Amino acid sequence: MGTDRQHSGDDTRVAFRTCPLCEAGCGLEITVKGDTVVRIRGDRDDVFSKGFLCPKGSTLKQLHDDPDRLRRPLVKRDGVHVEVEWGEAWAVIAERLPAVLRDHGREAVGVYMGNPCAHNLGPMLYNRSLLQALGTRRRFSASTVDQAPRQVAAGFAFGSPVTVPVPDLDRTDYLVVMGANPYASNGSLCTAPDFPGRLEAIRARGGTVVVIDPRRTRTVEGADRWLAIRPGTDALLLAAMVTTLAQDGRIDPGDHVGAWLTGLDDVVLACAAFTPESVAAATGIAAADTRQLARELAAAPSGSIYGRIGTTTAGFAGTSFSTATSWLIDVVNIVTGNLDRPGGAMFPTPVAGSGNTRGRRGSGKGFTTGKGATVVRGLPEVMGEYPAAAMAEEITDAGERRMRAVVTVGGNPVLSTPNSDQLDAALAQLEFMVSVDIYLNETTRHADVILPPPSQLQRGHYDLALLQFAVRNVANYSDPVLPLPDDQPDEWEILARLGLIAAGLGPEAEPSAADDLGIATLVAGAVGDPHSSIHGRSADEILAALGAEAGPARMLDFMLQTGPFGAAFGANPEGASLAALRANPHGLDYGALQPRLPEALRTPSGTVELNHPVLLAELPRLHAALQADGAATPAADEVLLVGRRDLRSNNSWMHNIGVLVKGKERCTLLVHPLDAQRIGLTDGGQARVVARVGELTTLVQVSDEMRPGVVSLPHGWGHGVEGTRMEVAASRPGVNSNVLTDDAAIDPLSGTSVLNGIPVTLQPI
Questions:
Q1: Residues 228 and 337 in one domain
Q2: Would you tell me how many other CB atoms lie within 10 Å of the CB of residue 528?
Q3: How far is the C-alpha of 49 from the C-alpha of 467, rounded, in Å?
Q4: Distance, CA of 196 to CA of 345 (rounded, Å)
Q5: Is the pLDDT of residue 28 over 80?
Q6: 611 and 758: one domain?
Q7: Is residue 483 part of a domain?
């Protein structure tokens, strides 16, 4: 049960696990008496976090004990959700979901995978079997309101969307942070416990931290320099940095990368149209500051640019260049010689393996998109998904090809995806909906059946997705801290049974059947793969060695043993395995990041394809937008809206924890004093915020931390809708900022929505 030590003479024990509430991966020390958690604090012996803990991690007890957390399935009867036994919930699903598939085909069902799926082992391993059983291409997720551009850019350039370079924080001399606020959100696509402490360590050893953000965040206050950029113009700044270095004759990728690089000259030539002077009016950053930034980064002993959600969800000139921005971050890291070297931007080696550790090393099929398209707008598939912004129209406007049923796993797209009112109305028109979720929230209130997974303390945990982007190669497994009630299925069992029902096998089908088939398929593939560490061995031998423990633990053990540090079922006895992690509850550290070129590449050419035609074509489009933007004059009351996050908040689903939402109101509209004076807004007053797709009224907070012309409103608020059961969240004021987010504004390469840089007008009330 995840126990490290037992107190003698009573039933008190201490368990260790990794916090699943954000991407930082902090270790927890959890004191349990009987089946009650009495204390949670940071695990000082954790190999990665070393005792660091943010306010969220200590609230797993409150989340587990939350009276609003669902503990039994809900079925909607006459418009009201009522608790039922599991057998009845499965029977309702077996009656109605296969009927939609039979009468209207597989494409009549859509699936939405929410942010919590990336933080939980069950969905990471078993969502695929559910998707395969449903057989639909109408798959949506939180990726297209978050990180997809970063992965798409990496896919085209490096051959795989998981080959994302991360800043080597612990060894760098010069870090540029673009569109991120790690003091509030820790790392993202950069798993690093105590990210703030790592930033402070850079400066303590004589390094430099520069933050590029339209808001003076807490991260800015801890940095050496702040460049208050205009939202959505990061690509212009980056291209101008490349041109600066080209003019200076300082383009130097280094011999360690140059041998595995194609297209550098093409990219530098295409960036020549963007000079620091030509982009200054659009970015709001003086040409001299752009040149200084480029030169300092190139001159530093080591350095890196790290860009996050402000760069992946931003709009400019009526469109988005989020994938182009992510690519240009890689370009700048390359031309300054900082890719794939200590202190620069490096590729992790995940202990459980990933798409860039398996199969043939150094080359592959590469990355493509467009294996399908949405019905209404013809938006292309990206990484097996369609844009979340298209969900509503695929329900309401696709005629006979419309989605008639939806399955959601975690997440709350009614609060987290664009044009929320439109999606809210669309979900009400479905013939059937089933949700796997711990809350009756703004989205799941539309579900005919809600299946609650156990709490985070009742599930085993390994950060399978997030450790692919960690700043050290570490591994840490947590067994469940608390037992499951007798009638509560584990999360993987819920997903597996749901898939079996979708496959037509009925409500009595055993999840273990799907689990056994899944692990047998993995083993057969590995023993037949000439690049695998167990190639040529008997599949029966490997299955016997894995034992009979069903569920994620067995699959994880297989991935660990066949991963880059793996035990390979006896071939490397000291290597990674589930048994080794269980014997080391504070985790195992496999060391700092190491150079991985060319073996990490999966491109057809076996090189970094920096001039991939899809990416290179973005620069003429960017130049056209720059020219069009130069002629545009905003209205007197128009500003650009960006989001923000608070240290005690991680999307909408944590707003029902009282200790995290108490205190002063945090859902306010930050407005610069000059804008407030110009528009007639007052601190503590109300403003009407109007966008193309919607409007809302919110509390104004006048603050000079904003760049003039830019306002900020946090996302994920706006609870209390009729039919929900989140009492604490409903009692807190706030508005849903995604009422203002335009579903038509997306990045064309990744399908990611524009959540930052939204043109809005403000009116005093």
A1: yes
A2: 12
A3: 13
A4: 18
A5: yes
A6: no
A7: no
pLDDT digits (tens, 9 = 90+) for 619-663: 999 999 999 987 666 777 799 999 998 877 766 778 888 888 888
The mean pLDDT value for 322-338 works out to 98
Say whether both 675 and 615 belong to one domain.
no
606 and 639 fall within a common domain: no
79: its two tokens: 């418009």
Question: Which 3 state secondary structure label does DSSP give 687?
Answer: strand
Tokens (6 digits) for 30: 């959890």
* Structural domains of the chain, count: 2
Give the per-residue pLDDT at 133.
Answer: 94
Are residues 161 and 264 part of one domain? yes
pLDDT of 505 over the 80 cut = yes
Helix locations, 172-227, DSSP H? 182-185, 195-204, 218-221
407 to each of 113, 236, 432, 448, 450, how far by Cα in Å? 9, 40, 9, 10, 10
Interatomic CA distance for residues 118 and 153, integer angstroms: 20
Model pLDDT, residue 5: 60
Residue 448 confidence class, pLDDT cut points 50, 70, 90: very high
**Would you mind telling me the total number of residues written for the chain in this entry?**
765
- Mean pLDDT over 471-483 rounds to 96
pTM above 0.70, yes or no: yes
Evaluate whether 568 touches 533 at the Cβ level (below 8 Å). yes
Would you put residue 229 in left (φ > 0), alpha (ψ -120 to 50) or beta? Answer: beta
Report yes or no on 117 lying in a domain: no
pLDDT digits (tens, 9 = 90+) for 567-590: 999 999 999 999 999 999 999 999
Question: What single-letter DSSP state applies at residue 348?
Answer: -
Helices (H), 397-490: 413-416, 420-427
Boundary (domain end) residue, out of 571, 589, 620: 620
Residues contacting residue 97 through CB under 8 Å, at least 6 positions apart: 109, 405, 407, 432, 434, 501, 502
pLDDT (average), residues 366-374: 97
pLDDT at 119: 87
Quickly list DSSP for 281-319.
HHH---HHHHHHHHHHHHHSSS-EEEE-HHHHSB-BTTB
User: In terms of residue numbers, what domain contains 750?
Assistant: 633-764
Cα of first residue to Cα of last residue in the chain, in angstroms, is 56
Neighbours of 361 (CB within 10 A): 16
Alpha-carbon span 686 to 678, nearest angstrom: 15
CB of 311 closer than 8 Å to CB of 179: yes
Q: For tokens 């416990």, name the residue.
A: 193
Q: Enter the tokens of residue 90.
A: 């499965």
Across 382-403, average pLDDT? 98
SS3 215: strand
Residue 83 lies in a domain: no
CB-based burial, 234-261: b 16+ in 10 Å, e otherwise = bbbbbbbbbbbbbeeeebebbeebeebb
Same domain, 739 and 614: no
- Measure the CA–CA gap between 76 and 366, rounded to whole angstroms: 46
pLDDT at 1: 42
User: Both tokens of residue 631?
Assistant: 């002629």
pLDDT surpassing 60 at residue 695? yes
